[in-house]
Amino acid sequence: MKKHYWYIAPALIISLFIYLFYRTDKTLVNQIFIQLSSLKTYEDLKCSITTTLPLNKYIIYSLPEGLWVFCITLTSKGFYIKFFNRQIDCVLIPPAFAIGLELFQLLHITNGRFDILDIAVSLLFWFLALKITQTKARLENVFNAFNLNSAVCLLSYCIVYLAHVNH
């Protein structure tokens, strides 16, 4: 997976940049940034960046999820989970998660607004990640094979919590 870090790092940095400066300041990652700096510093920086580099709403609201799906697909390659005595390839989890999240939004089970474009962007990035990771390597159980790659895989799933919006 080491060769994939060159794809993962820029994708996560772009997502972080969009979340920090274009999404609501109530997201957990923004609250952390504000605590580490100050509200004034954050607001000044956000104003300066959004004025200098205006982004389309589709980039602001759909791209970060797509990039996250891309990253977790790359980190999931080579792992499986056991579910009811079935071996499930972890690369199937990212699109299921993205589609499930959108369905939960549609049914008002979770915060957010259902957007079919989010699903399309997520699937596009999922396919791209699958293309990059084409390999016939033997799968390992992500929970049994604890090493740097499995830790990065599990942590990449936890990143989604940083996008949580506090009300």
UniProtKB/TrEMBL annotation:
It comes from Pedobacter soli. This is Uncharacterized protein. The chain crosses the membrane at residues 5-22, 92-110, 116-133, 145-164. It comes from the Bacteria. Keywords: Membrane, Transmembrane, Transmembrane helix.
